[in-house]
Amino acid sequence: MTTALASKQLPLRMKASFPIAVVAKAKAPSPASADKQATGLDELGTAHVVPRGKTVAEEGTPAEYVFKIVSGAFRVVRLLPDGRRSVIDFLLPGDYFGLAENGTYSHSLEVISDASFIRYPKGQLRHLLDSDPRASRRFFNLMCEQLSAAQGRLLMLSRKSAVERIASFILAMADRSQRKNGAIKLPMNRADVADYLGLTIETVSRTLSQLRADKVIELPTACQIVLRDRDRLAAISGDN
Amino acid sequence: MTTALASKQLPLRMKASFPIAVVAKAKAPSPASADKQATGLDELGTAHVVPRGKTVAEEGTPAEYVFKIVSGAFRVVRLLPDGRRSVIDFLLPGDYFGLAENGTYSHSLEVISDASFIRYPKGQLRHLLDSDPRASRRFFNLMCEQLSAAQGRLLMLSRKSAVERIASFILAMADRSQRKNGAIKLPMNRADVADYLGLTIETVSRTLSQLRADKVIELPTACQIVLRDRDRLAAISGDN
DNA sequence: CGGCGCCTTGAATAATATCAACGATAGTGG
DNA sequence: CCACTATCGTTGATATTATTCAAGGCGCCG
Of A82, B90, B134, B226, which has the most beta carbons under 10 Å away? Predict the structure, then answer.
């Protein structure tokens, strides 16, 4: 509860200096048929730049768009009526949001670090999927990956201890995230990690401190992690 | 751990009287093109009958088939190396298994109550998806539903208390499951429920007892639940 | 330099797991 | 058909883990 309310609305100093802006408008829409592009999708979307803290899509509002992350980092958030928060996923460049959202968004999409994305009208995407087998196949595979990832997290949340979750998380971020001279750079804060792993801020912090004390990781800053003993981290994580 | 090992292999007395059997072999395979069927898929599969306790697909083995449940109930199971178990989903008639499984199965599919299913070679299904937009769309929507369901469960596992999980579970089963004169008939045992909700057998049992004591439900038998106060159950469940 | 978030750490509490015993039930074999 | 037995379910006592409450420190930005 504390976690949820604390992180519900990040009071970021959002000067108007960095508003949502259409940065590039694509060429004239073509009757999605003879495509040479990877997906034939690119020309349907508009590019946008957004500042940290911005909510790009809001839970409960009509799901009109699908988003493709270009740069930066996002969190996918869902709330319980009493305010408890769950971070369903973190999105990084190349990831999509909204593919499975039907009618209204069941999640909010929030910007963690200054970011940009391409936004596609859902109707047009649907049409493309119906008419272009290549795109259809591509997005079907994307859905498969998302589902697999979600199922992996179900196992984690239902059966893993706090250290195991943290270890798994660090290893996953090590693969996905940016590096800054050897250190993994976490774009999210402790509250986000906590709500992603189903823990509290305090437990996340304590567990990281413990891993540091055990010389498995180093923490140059709060949002940087250096792997000191990857094998042991993998052993702690519990899988394989 | 106790839970996992206890329920890892149900020592059901499996007399040879009820083996897997091909019950119906479909007509000659057609070059999936001019389909009149709902999905054009039916003729690709073979029907099978399986007894309780049987493992129909095993985690780690090549994912050659997709399954459509016809009757009975199944659990989708994933194990941690040390034996801890998670029930990722329960499958009832109309549900599919294996759509997102790539290369090798990342879950086992186990029969909870005597059941039957149709099995489709994955390669042929893929081919159908590539060639038939109707089928493609249908299965894309199925994947969307599965993903949404998984995400809902992520919220539950990461933020809900034991009572809330049990209440949500009962309400969900009330919609999906069979009835037996007014009572919801659970096909699974306590260990399955526990591993599905990320709890222990004992906590599941205690929580159900407590709900009974509070006159929210009745438990005519261990596997039957009568809703006595659906509104209160919904309130307890936490969502909406 | 000052203030505000964010992070860390400690101590007490609450929730759930674990250990253990008993009870109920259903399927088996006599 | 009944009694037996294995399995499953319930309940109690205790242990453990993570949460909650509280305070202080660090770092960043203005």
Answer: B90
| pLDDT of amino acid A39 | 54
Chain A residues in contact with B107 (beta carbon < 8 A): 151
State how far the Cα of A121 lies from the Cα of B26, in Å rounded to an integer.
41
CATH 1.10.10.10 segments of chain A: 160-237
Q: pLDDT digits over A151-179, tens only?
A: 999 999 999 999 999 999 999 999 999 89
Distance between first and last Cα of chain A:
33
Whole-number pLDDT of residue B180: 86
CB B88 within 8 A of CB A153: no
Strand partners, A160: none
Mean pLDDT of chain A: 86
Binding-face residues of A in 182-211 toward B, CB within 8 A:
195-198
Q: CATH 2.60.120.10 region(s) of chain A?
A: 2-153
Residue with tokens 């943290």: A166
Measured between alpha carbons, how far is residue A166 from residues A8, A108, A192, B185 in Å? 22, 24, 13, 38
Residues 26-55 of B with CB under 8 A from A: none
Residue of B nearest to A78 (CA): B155
Q: Is the domain covering B2-157 a CATH 2.60.120.10 domain?
A: yes
Number of A/B CB contacts below 8 angstroms equals 125
Q: What is the pLDDT of residues A43-102, one digit of tens each?
A: 789 999 999 999 999 999 999 999 999 999 999 999 999 999 999 999 999 999 999 999
Name every chain B residue with its beta carbon within 8 A of the beta carbon of A107: 151
CATH 1.10.10.10 fits A160-237, yes or no: yes
Q: What was the pLDDT predicted at A40?
A: 61
